[in-house]
Amino acid sequence: MISLSTLSDSLRFVATATRHPLKMGAVLPSGHYLVTAMAAQIDLREPGPVIELGSGTGAITDALIKHGIDQRRLILIESHQSFYDDLQKRFPDARCFCDDAYDIETLAKQNFFPKAAAIVSGLPLRTQSLKRKRAFIESALRLLRPGAPLIQFSYGLSPPVEEHQIDATLIAAETVWKNIPPARIWVYKASEHSG
Ligand SMILES: C[S@@+](CC[C@H](N)C(=O)[O-])C[C@H]1O[C@@H](n2cnc3c(N)ncnc32)[C@H](O)[C@@H]1O
Predict the structure, then answer these.
(1) Pocket-testing residue among 32, 65, 80, 128, ligand 1, by greatest number of atoms within 8 A of Cβ
(2) Averaged pLDDT score across all residues of the chain
(3) pLDDT, tens digit (0-9, with 9 covering 90-100), for 92-144
(4) What's 68's domain CATH number?
(5) Nearest ligand 1 atom, CA 54
(6) In a domain, 15, yes or no
(7) Is 126 a member of any domain?
(8) Least packed by Cβ within 10 Å: which of 9, 168, 189, 193?
(9) 93: exposed, middle or buried (C-beta count within 10 Å: 0-12, 13-18, 19+)?
């Protein structure tokens, strides 16, 4: 049975997606199976913060906490003001930023982020140019501890950036058929010779 808060989050998401389709890149928040599978990619033994980009109504954030990540380890970056305001209220122990996640490196430098255990992204990369997507993935990988993952989902079968288009290792981690629409989880890691 769907809870009232999930229903209200979904309605807010749909309303915002109708007004800003390119920024949202989805019509519904990520579903239970998708967010659980994304969180499961994170190794709880790895120290450092877990950074979430494009947190929206907090569907992935909830799954990260359920997976066992302490809220105090979370850094949430969301550009939409009203989603950001709610994230701050709902996750008071996380560090929240209302900012452009594509410029994550500047934000990390200005706010002294330690190297991260994982970066989880719900950003709608498909609406971005290849140049911007590559720059984003490369800058995110520079903020991670060695071997740590950038976890990104996409709708459709192809990755946001193919492995041959970027100096990184790409793993197709899981296809979540039960999400609406079905989604694929991609894991980018810095290639061993970089950094
Ligand atoms: C596809 S929704 C994902 C929301 C949530 N993580 C989920 O999985 O349900 C994309 C989210 O990214 C946010 N977003 C889009 N562009 C952004 C940017 N440049 N910086 C930060 N957040 C952004 C949108 O406001 C929206 O909340």
Answers:
(1) 80
(2) 93
(3) 999 999 999 999 999 999 999 999 999 999 999 988 999 999 999 999 999 99
(4) 3.40.50.150
(5) 12
(6) no
(7) yes
(8) 193
(9) exposed
Give residue 125's domain range.
30-190
Residues enclosing ligand 1, CB less than 6 A? 23-26, 29-30, 54-56, 59-60, 77-80, 83, 100-102, 122-124
pLDDT, residue 28, reads: 75
Pocket probe mutation, ligand 1, options 9, 23, 62, max atoms within 8 Å of Cβ: 23
Q: Are 75 and 52 in contact (CB under 8 A)?
A: yes
Strand ranges of the sheet holding 150-155, from the earlier edge strand across to the other edge: 95-97, 74-77, 50-53, 118-121, 150-155, 183-190, 168-176
Residue 41 located in a structural domain = yes
Residue 1: pLDDT band by 50, 70, 90 thresholds?
low
pTM: predicted TM-score of the whole model, two decimal places: 0.93
| pLDDT over 60 at 195, yes or no | no
Helix (H) or strand (E) holding 186: strand 183-190
- Domains held by the chain: number: 1
Specify the ligand 1 atom closest to the Cα of 83: 27
pLDDT at 21: 75
